[in-house]
Amino acid sequence: MRSARDFMLLTPPEQIETAPPLGDKDSLGPDPDHPFVPPALYLPSTGVPNAQGTEIELRRLRDGRMALLAYTAVDRLVKCMGPNQPWALFLTENLNDLAEKQPFDVIMLDQRIPQELWRQEERKQ
Q: Which residues make beta-bridge pairs with 82?
């Protein structure tokens, strides 16, 4: 049974640029069944400050689940969400805390969203 803080990790359907496995059984190369999650992720934010720093932007999927989009590098976030998307660097170890404050069902890594859903306005510096 899932607890309120359980969530799934989904990787994008398209291939991510990764190094090929070394080819031996002891290789630490890419494993599609257990994707590598870095110690910190770039999360899209609303740009609105809150008590924890900034409000993280969640997206509702077509099936009704709430998704946290997370990016392994800032250039991937920009490529997948556009140059005007505010973001926050977030420690992976704190994702459970985030899920308590802003509940989500799945985490989607390096997921490209359609350009018509990109933010059009520039961030205020």
A: none
